[in-house]
Amino acid sequence: MILVLMILIPFAGAIVAAASGRINSLWPRIVSLLALGLGLVAVISLWGRASWSPGLNLPPGMGSIGAEHAWIAEFNRAWIPELGISLHLAIDGLSLLLILLTFLLGIVAVVCSWREIQTGVGVFHLNLMLTLAGVIGVFLSLDLFLFYFFWELMLVPMYFLIAVWGHEARRYASVKFFIFTQLSGLLMLLGILGLYFIHGNKTGVYTFDYTRLIGTDLGPQGVWIMLGFFVAFAVKLPVVPFHTWLADAHTEAPTAGSVILAGLLLKTGAYGLLRFVLPLFPDAVAAFSSAGMALGVAGIIYGAALAVGQTDLKRLIACSSISHMGFVLMGIFSMNEIGLQGAVIQMLCHGFSTGGLFVLAGLLQERLHTRDLAAMGGIWPLAPRMAGAGLFFALAALALPGLGNFIGEFLVLLGSYQVNNALTAIAAAGMVLSAVYSLRIVQRVFHGKRSESLLVPDFSPREMAVMGCMAAVIIFLGLFPQPVLDISGPSLKSIIAPMQNSRTIQAVSGDMNRAEPSRREAP
To answer: Which of 67, 214, 380, 467 could form a disulfide with 446 if both were Cys (CB 3.0 to 4.6 A apart)?
Structure first.
């Protein structure tokens, strides 16, 4: 039942926040923080329940998928049994980490919008909390129909966050965001239906349940169904060339919207690849893996090159996300545990580091009324706390050793090197470009000559507390990532098990085919 509550708490918080906004603009903020705090307590309690030695003694009462996968908690009730639709929710180490990230960045989003959002505060927090509830539903759903329901749910309130509380070109950016994500979602829906009918025709059981669909023999149609899922997740990740919505949406969104977009919505694409694409389509993924890694490398280089050429601070940070998420895609399609562990660490650290940079950009825009790097400069003496935070998050973005981003990118490169050393070498060159645009932020914003009339208030204690907490997480993951590796390890092993089995079958089949001519030649 705790899994249902983790979705219902943000829903209830959204409704109460909207109603309380008619009384006082302070109440929606407090209600949202209380709801997110309750959800955070629930996630932490589940982490304590999941504290076991990987591969040894699992907690009692855990559901399972075969012998390879175990859930920390599970909820399964019939919803529309005639169509094989159920309310099937489950959480393992992978989804636990991402839901923890959701509640933490949700709190950051509420705090950083404290001064920025002054109109329609109740409705703003209604949309913010509904977006978070949709994201949590995506991370918990094991019924593909339910997953698609939450996948679409989180898009609508995010559209309103951008369209109503965004900046100058907000309507264009919101419509572009909605069109890209909606059309790609329809492709995924077609893939879900294809999987549903093929499984039903072969087994006589029509179901949307993930645990029953694993292992379905899809035949030649498997590649096309996999591509339907892949495109939907690639748009959200985003993968080059499906990335063009990202910079506009990030640039025009309010600060809280940018934090949620970069920190969470992009991660739903990576999560979809890990949870659904890899286990459901092992043969198709094995054939597609080289192309997937190449797309990741293209994103790393192209996103970094785009970031270097930007003069708008928020657009620069948005383009850098394309590069960072390229490492995630590359780690996923390396299809080994080291690469997948690196992808998970990178997902978490990107949420905090890029989220911190977007908070910084939003607060700078609030104070200077511009995002143009050419109009900034010389801020360090005026706002040393802001400058120190900006320097830290810029160093995190360039993957400085000792910070979590370095661990993530290093593990991705280590795992990818075992598969394709040429692509790994090219991806490593992208880290050089990340140093260029990260240090450019520090130089253009905080150093150089400043205008005589420039007045920049430094971070308030509330703002500094938020930035300090995000920085602490990045430092912790850089110095002591083992708890994250331990909690996600069993989940990732179970995810890649079908592909390893597929590779083993292919290898055995290949050996038998090579041996067959010699048998025929024998007298």
So the answer is: 380
Q: How far is it, in rounded angstroms, from Cα 34 to Cα 28?
A: 10
**Nearest C-alpha neighbor of 358 from the set 437, 232, 255:** 255
pLDDT of residue 500: 63
Helix (H) or strand (E) holding 65: strand 64-65
How long, in residues, is the chain?
Answer: 523
Residue 89: in which H helix or E strand, if any?
strand 85-91
Q: Give alpha helix (H) positions in 398-481.
A: 404-417, 421-446, 461-479
Grouping H, G, I as helix, E, B as strand and the rest as coil, residue 167 is coil
Q: What pLDDT, in 10s, does the model give residues 31-54?
A: 999 999 999 999 998 888 766 434
Question: Which residue range forms the structural domain that includes residue 329?
Answer: 281-496
Answer yes or no: is 439 within a domain: yes
Q: Give the residue from 344, 283, 347 showing the smallest Cα distance to 491.
A: 344
Residue 337 placed within a domain: yes
In a domain, 50, yes or no: no
Residue with tokens 């914003």: 445
pLDDT tens-digit series, residues 237-289? 999 888 889 989 988 999 999 999 999 999 999 999 999 999 999 889 988 98
How much is the pTM? 0.90
Residue from 97, 255, 266, 36 nearest 161 by CA: 255
Separation of alpha carbons 165 and 113, rounded Å:
11
Confidence of residue 501 (pLDDT cuts 50, 70, 90): low
| Contact criterion met (CB below 8 Å) for 239 and 231 | no
Output the DSSP codes for 273-316.
IIIIIHHH-HHHHHHHHHHHHHHHHHHHHHHHHHHHT--BHHHH
How many structural domains is the chain composed of?
1
| Residue 6 exposure: Cα atoms within 13 Å on the Cβ side | 30
| Torsion, CA 341, CA 360, CA 124, CA 157, rounded to 10 | -40
CA gap 14, 122 in Å, rounded: 9
275, part of any domain: no
